[in-house]
Amino acid sequence: MVCNQAREILKRLLEKIDEIIMESRDKDKFDNKDIKKRTLDTLFGEVTIKRRYYKDSNDDFRFLLDEYLNIPANKRQSPALKEIALDLVTELPYRKYLRDFNQSFFNF
To answer: Is the pLDDT of residue 20 over 80?
Structure first.
C-alpha cells in the first residue's frame, strides 16, 4: 500500500517537473512535439510517467525531463531519481510529506 502511494507521488512529482520544464524552456530553441511514456525503476517499484518530447533548433529530438534527471536513453534510473526517491522515505514522515506535497503541487 505504501509503495503504491509512493509510486503515485513520484509519478506526479516527475510529471509536474516535466510541466515546469515545458513552461520555462526556451520556446525558440525547443519545440514541444509529443508526449511519450517511459517506465523507470525506483525504490518503490516501476513507475510509468508521461513526459514531453522536443525538437531542438538543431533538429535533434530530446526529452528534457530525462536530461534534467540525467537518465540515459538505455537506462531506467538516474542518480537524481534515486535521490528524489530517498528523500521521499528518509527526510519527512510519510504522512507529512504526502500532506505537504499535495498542498504544494495539487492544492488538495
So the answer is: yes
* pTM for this prediction: 0.71
Q: Are 56 and 33 in contact (CB under 8 A)?
A: no
Output the pLDDT for position 42: 80
Residue of 11, 3, 1 whose CA lies nearest to 106: 11
pLDDT classification of 107: cutoffs 50, 70, 90: low
Q: Is the pLDDT of residue 62 over 90?
A: yes
Cell 515546469, residue located: 20
Per-residue HEC secondary structure of the chain comes to CHHHHHHHHHHHHHHHHHHHHHHHCCCCCEEEEEEEEEEEEECCEEEEEEEEEEEECCCCEECHHHHHHCCCCCCCCCHHHHHHHHHHHHCCCHHHHHHHHHHHHHCC
